[in-house]
Amino acid sequence: MAESFDGINGKAFRPFDEQLKPLLDKYLEGKKYVGSDYSYYAFIGWFSAGEYLDAGDALYLRAEMDGGMYYWPPLVKEGSGIGMEQAAARLPHDACFAFCTEEFVNATYGGYYIYTHRDWAEYIYKTADFIALPGKRYHAKRNHIAKFRKNYVSEMTALTQADVADVMEFEREWMAAREFDGSAEESAARESAIVKGWIKAALDGKLICDVLRVDGKLAGIAIGEITPTGTAIEMYEKADTRYEGVYSYLAHEFAARNFSGCEYINRQEDMGLEGLRKSKLSYYPEFMLEKYVLKPADRYSDCYAERMSKLYSKVLDRVGIPGARFDVKELSDADFDTVWSFLEGERDKLENKLFFLNYTPEELHGVLTHGTMFGAFDRGRLIATCAVDRDPEYGAELAGICGDKSGAPWYEFSGIMTAEEYRGRGVSATLCRDVIAYAKRELSPCTLCAVVQFDNTPSLNNLKALGFSAVVTRPYGEYDFTYLVLKV
């Protein structure tokens, strides 16, 4: 590998091998991580070349990707006395990182350009809901499963050596029936080779594998594992679609048979495939686990994002823009023109304009007159907004949607917008905390409720970081919205 940095604490990097698996298990003990990036079989096995180093207190992984060397965020041993920032600081100053979570970004982002992409986000499901399929939103899934059970005589069993020949033929037929081109064909061939390793690991008791047969003929196969953090990962699922409802049945039965003791199931990313994305969204993930790439700012000119023209980037520095550098004030109806122009102008700059459904003029007048809206100003210029809409009728409607019959006041937490050039610099988070503090001081006891489009992952994650919890997701018109609440 083209990398001059060879070791830490006198220890050298070594190629990925099966000895890495128990090391990963050891370093994951005591953690709550739900991602798949440190799974030897579900993720690391995809890399044909990679290296790792056990420094005793931290585990380092790296691999060649997209023409450069990238590191995983270091895994720090519980009780070692060092943090991930200290562990990362041992690496070269120009090290690039991939598969970064928000926690790692927040600890280390000084001097880096940060990229993310919707295709990379992993789908994390609440196991109890995935198995029980409760409520109206899972009605179609329950119907698919019921039809499968009614129409076919099936049996689902753990993989045995006697199944292997059928599984390999099933995989061969699946590949032959697809029309691949370019990188898709290469990726599918790589997966087919990896599946052979997964089958062996399952027979050795290192992975979980079930096969589904209809009238004795192989109709589906699913492979997964339970990580040392207690998270279930399903890394492989294929079925014969000539059997109606087979995928719904296979996914449900595999989870029910093997993962009922886990809090979460990680079904990994959708790779930007429209059909796969639609399928995974239809199971209503509890949340999306965003992944980021960090590249040093002085190497932006050759960054992956520019070459591919499909990623977005933002520049962050450790200090960001602290609250002392901007003013926060309560807005009134006299500020209507300024606020309206700001919200409309910044909405036009959003990549997905549906992620911010602006007030109507009447609604904005109402919030500025009867509600509470705060604005952040930098040298007199409005750069961010956040509001508490105190409309009692709408508050009662939100309470009903979220199942609260106590009669206590509910207010919408809304109007969150930040000027494009100030995003990712801590302005919105600071302003939102000021508004929450106001609500605690002036409106308590009450419930704040934020309504966000179901797939607006950045907003959902930002609200959860502020203490909001998702209560329900339900359709409104042609869109699905998630309702998040914070009692103050």
Topology:
Blueprint: E1 7-8, E2 11-12, E3 14-15, H1 20-28, E4 50-54, E5 58-65, E6 68-71, E7 75-76, H2 84-89, E8 96-100, H3 102-108, E9 112-116, E10 122-126, H4 127-132, H5 139-151, E11 154-158, H6 164-176, H7 183-203, E12 208-214, E13 217-226, E14 232-239, H8 246-258, E15 264-266, H9 274-281, E16 287-289, E17 292-296, H10 304-308, E18 312-315, E19 327-331, H11 336-348, H12 361-370, E20 372-378, E21 381-389, H13 392-401, E22 410-418, H14 427-442, E23 447-453, H15 457-465, E24 469-476, E25 479-487
Parallel strand pairs: 6-8, 14-15, 22-23
Antiparallel strand pairs: 1-2, 3-4, 4-5, 5-6, 5-7, 8-17, 9-17, 9-18, 10-15, 10-16, 11-12, 12-13, 13-14, 19-20, 20-21, 21-22, 23-25, 24-25
Helix pairs in contact: 5-8, 6-7
Explain the overall architecture.
By secondary structure, the chain is of the alpha+beta class. It folds into three domains: 7-121 and 290-302, Gcn5-related N-acetyltransferase (GNAT) (Aminopeptidase); 122-289, Aminopeptidase, CATH 3.40.630; 322-487, Aminopeptidase, CATH 3.40.630. Helix content is 33%, strand content 28%. The strands form four sheets. Strands 3, 4, 5, 6, 7, 8, 9, 17 and 18 form a nine-stranded mixed beta sheet that branches. Strands 11-12-13-14-15-10-16 form a seven-stranded mixed beta sheet, sandwiched between helices. It has a seven-stranded mixed beta sheet with strand order 19-20-21-22-23-25-24, sandwiched between helices. A hairpin with a 2-residue loop joins strand 1 and strand 2. It is globular and about 75 Å long. The N and C termini lie far apart (54 Å). The model is unreliable at 298-324 (pLDDT under 50).
